[in-house]
Amino acid sequence: MENINNVTEFVFWGLSENLEVEEVCFVVFSFFYTVSLLGNLLIMLTVYTGNLFKFPMYFFLNYLSFVDICYSSVTAPKMIVDLLAESKTISYEGCMLQLFGVHFFGCTEIFILTVMAYDRYVAICRPLHYMTIMDQDKCNKMLLGTWVGGFLHSIIQVALVVQLPFCGPNEIDHYFCDVHPVLKLACTDTYVVGVVVTANSGTIALGSFVILLISYTVILVSLRKQSPDGRRKALSTCGSHIAVVIIFFGPCTFMYMRPDTTFSEDKMVAVFYTIITPMLNPLIYTMRNAEVKTAMKKLWVRKVSSEKLMRNNWK
């Protein structure tokens, strides 16, 4: 099949065609994106200044925050600017890059959440072997595996789309380039491609979700053998992980565990996992984790002390 591509740019329909709604969305999502950036940067700064890298949980939490920043930044800035723009366009190359970025960072986040669940399983169920199993070298290899897995997943998605011909309509009923909305514009039969895309994304989303559910079920069952204090601490830590897993995997499963179809609710669901979830992650981890809150307090005290010292020096 000859690849005929007459489309040089795509036009987004955006979140709404109502100007007043778009203005409200501009304020709301600008706030959400700012909170997401500051919250995740604060966690990264806390892990760095608190010397928490030596603990596997915080080692992975740091990179989860980094991935959240990248993940939301792939779609949010363009979407926020488009809310006040008359023409919501993106070049063909920009669309393919955005599609790659969404799936690369999204899949990497899924794998990091899975690794974090494994870390909690080892810490709670095999505490005597924890430092041997989760040493720095193994943590580095697992982190590398999450990035490689995300890259392989996303490159497959993009490879399936770029070989399709686009010769007609170029309007995407979405606010960013995702596989299913883009496939609808191809001027050829995309049934086989749609099945492969669903199998690729769905297997990763559902497979990882099942692994996470099994891991946390085993952890919760094993907590019965813990002391009340140990049980309380473990529940506090695992509670934040479980909350993040549910709010991230719920929308992802809805979007990618189905045939090549689109629904009117897709845009609202996508907002949840591309903007709201990255914003909630730092809030959940700080509110539910005593060690992170303690490290943040130390960071704040250090900042206040340094400011007082500078003022005294100026005097």
Largest sheet: 3 strands, mixed
Give the tally of β-strands: 3
The whole-angstrom Rg is 22 Å
Which geometry do the CA atoms define? globular
Uncertain segments: none
Structural class: mainly alpha
Structure description:
This protein has 315 residues and is mainly α. It has helices spanning 19-49, 56-82, 92-125, 130-133, 136-162, 179-183, 191-222, 228-256, 266-288, 290-314, and strands spanning 9-12, 89-91, 171-172. Strands 2-1-3 form a 3-stranded mixed sheet. Helix 1 (19-49) packs parallel to helix 9 and helix 3 (92-125) packs parallel to helix 7 (191-222). The protein is globular and about 65 Å long. The model has no long low-confidence stretch (mean pLDDT 84).
Based on the model shown, name its key terms:
single chain; 315 residues; mainly alpha; three-stranded mixed sheet; 3 strands; 3% strand; globular
What's a concise summary of this model?
The chain has 315 residues and is mainly alpha-helical. It is built from ten helices and three strands.
Task: Tell me the layout of helices and strands.
Layout: E1 9-12, H1 19-49, H2 56-82, E2 89-91, H3 92-125, H4 130-133, H5 136-162, E3 171-172, H6 179-183, H7 191-222, H8 228-256, H9 266-288, H10 290-314
Helix pairs in contact: 1-2, 1-9, 1-10, 2-3, 2-9, 3-5, 3-7, 3-8, 5-7, 7-8, 8-9, 9-10
